[in-house]
Amino acid sequence: MYALKLDRQTIAVELVFCAADTCYLSKEAFDPNFPSMSIGTVIRLHAMIQMQAEGFKTVDFMLGEYPWKERMRTGTRKAATYRAPGPLLRHLGQTRAADESSRSGGG
User: Fold this and answer.
1) pTM above 0.90, yes or no
2) Quick one: pLDDT band at residue 35, thresholds 50, 70, 90?
3) What is the SS3 assignment for 31?
4) Across 13-17, 25-29, 83-87, least confident range
5) What fold is seen in the domain 2-77?
């Protein structure tokens, strides 16, 4: 997570997940009291500069079409969609419920 501070007050954060040589921009939040400073852009660029300095080769803006992504992108790649069948999801939910029950002493 990258944070931007002004007078010791956090005014923007960028949540990033990294794996292998790619960082994924997940969430961004900023104080709306600073509209003229474009702090969303500032924190995003700061994070990207830091990621490059740390050796990461790719920044993935993830899904969604926004004007800022168009301005910052250098290329695109296809996103894959995976769908798990209903019975598998129900099984996973039952397994999780059983695990939680055994941890809490229920059964």
Assistant:
1) no
2) confident
3) coil
4) 83-87
5) Aminopeptidase (3.40.630)
